[in-house]
Amino acid sequence: MGEIFLGNEALADGLRRRDLRRWYRPLFRGVYIPKNARPTLADRAVGAWLTSGRQGIVAGVTASAMHGARWVDDDEPIEILVHDRRRQAGLLVRTDRIDTDEVVTIDGIPVTSAARTAFDLGRYLKRTHALARLDALMRVAPFGDDVHLLIQRYGPVRGVRQLRELLPLVDAGAESPKESWLRLLLIDNGFPIPETQIPVFDDGPQPFAFLDMGWREVNLAIEYDGDQHRTDRPQYVKDLRRIPRIERCGYHVIRVIAEDSPAEILGRVYEAWLHRGGAEIDEMSAFSRTNRPIRPFGREVA
Questions:
Q1: How far apart are alpha carbons 158 and 127 in whole angstroms?
Q2: What are the pLDDT tens digits along the chain (302 aa)?
Q3: Which of 39, 54, 192, 195 makes a 20 to 30 Å CA pair with 94?
Q4: Phi/psi at 212 (5° precision)
């Protein structure tokens, strides 16, 4: 018997009901796994497909992970396209129209194609999260202009305006969701679209470093220091030691950490941008679509 199965099929094959209750637990409605199992995202995708009567199509963030995209947790809700919209815990059920050329099979499970997955991610997720997921998907499963064909196919459906806006900003060079967020913060505040993974050359023909993002025309780079710099000490030391070498090649490097506020980041980048000869930016706000201000509601009490 497989690790994930339909209870009624197992009973029909001879499993005793008391053994089903003793050794297995429900994953989704009618779907069981061993009691001591810790299901992965792929396991839960199989369970979601089974609970749909093998008729559903895995979509959204789950589909992106099945295409190979990173940064998807095992407990992420499983998005699935079905005809019958019966809700249950752990599932995000949609009844959207989908054509056969928008479906592929991965590990025996029907999954939305890379283009259809991008089409859904860019429409349904909040803007910043959508770009991060699109970046991650583009890195492993380039979807190219096929998304524009879907936009033409389905017309003015929900979220398509946001999708159109985000597509020109998608960049497979982003190596984490926070890098995607940082890039969007800069774009929203008037900076030109940063280039990602900028190669830096010294004396040899091969680059000795790749910068997270920046602008070659003003030799300004921005590096996001994520959790790996806290957990991987040797890599952190290596990254620190390469900064002087990068600066000797003419780059000014701004390092950003999670604790930096958007206003601090924008202030540092703008100061360096002007110092390096960048054009003035007419309207820049510390609060943009990527960082909305927190405003009190009601009358302030003196």
A1: 13
A2: 459 999 999 999 999 999 999 999 999 999 999 999 999 999 999 999 999 999 999 999 999 999 999 999 999 999 999 987 788 999 999 999 999 999 999 999 999 999 999 999 999 999 999 999 999 999 999 998 999 999 999 999 999 999 999 999 999 999 999 999 999 999 999 999 999 999 999 888 999 999 999 999 999 999 998 765 566 667 677 777 889 999 999 999 999 999 999 999 999 999 999 999 988 887 665 555 566 544 333 333 33
A3: 39
A4: -55, -50
Going from the N-terminus, what domains does the chain have, and what CATH number goes with each? 39-169 (no CATH), 177-275 (3.40.960.10)
Query: Strand 109-112 to strand 103-106: parallel, antiparallel, or no bridges (unpaired)?
Result: antiparallel
Taking alpha carbons only, the member of 151, 153, 169 closest to residue 161 is 151
3-state secondary structure of 267: helix
- Classified as helix, coil or strand, 221 is strand
Residue 38 CA to residue 258 CA, distance in Å, equals 30
* Separation of alpha carbons 181 and 175, rounded Å: 11
User: CA–CA separation, 10 vs 26, rounded Å?
Assistant: 13
Assessment of whether the complete model's pTM goes beyond 0.85:
yes
Where would I find the H helices in the chain? 7-12, 17-23, 41-51, 60-66, 114-124, 127-140, 146-154, 160-166, 177-188, 228-231, 233-248, 262-275
Tokens of 23: 């050794």
Written as six digits, the tokens of 219 are 């030799």
